[in-house]
Amino acid sequence: MLINDANSVFAVADYLGPDSYEGAAYGRADDRTSGWRRIAHRVVYRLRNTGTSLRSPPLSDILAYVRSVRAKPRVLVVGAGGLQLADDGAVVVHTDVAFARHVELIADAHDLPFAPRSFDLIVAIAVLEHVADPQRCVAEFVRVLDRGGFVYAVTPFLQPVHMGAYDFTRFTPIGHRRLFRQFDEVAAGVALGVGSVVASALQAFLLGFSSRRFWRRLAGGAALLATPPLRLMDRLLRHNLDAVSGCWFFGRLRDGPPVSDRELVKTYPQSFGIGPERLPPPMRGADTPLN
Fold first, then answer.
1. pTM beyond 0.85, yes or no
2. Is the distance from CB of 222 to CB of 206 less than 8 angstroms?
């Protein structure tokens, strides 16, 4: 457990007792419920996390890309939760601010407990909306990445609040790109599209009518059943990328100054699309030596 107690929103004392923070386990393998309740949790979790019809490079392709320029890449997963990266060709460290299966270190992204140039790839999926200062966290990513290192991030735009008080920020597509202005873009695109926005908005709309338990169960169930077909429409609704549910970015650390705001504004929206289904061939250069 490597929390900077003086600077973090989390306190070391939060992790020392029997009620220490374990994060969200609803419907996952770590869910401690049993019987019909566990089955119900699994069904709700699967419906809530139905895949989109948009096609983007899987995380395995991200790892393969980095391995092609770094023989045995060092990978840091920030906010791992239930995610486990199993890759024989990489050294992977899973961190989070909550105890969970596969998490090796409790660490806050605002103050990563690693020396400069410790990693070749940082993975942050559905993380940067939950940090108080995203820019500071990305600055930490830059600090601990080796020369020519990579970052892969997935972050929401048009989504309701989740995880209550620990949900701070949303990013427009250009705002998401600006967050990583110290990186050259390898590939980027839409993680969840407009259909996914409608699904989450429908649930919020129905739940807004009443706070009674019966209604919330009925409305929540109806919205969950509508989620899979609406997410399947993401690809059909790709002509309005200013209203997507979330974005992904895969980039490589720049040697020079950050991408200027003038350049970002000038090239938007032509520079942003649904994203490729496959990554472009890796570009090897003097600043990305093989290990």
1. yes
2. yes
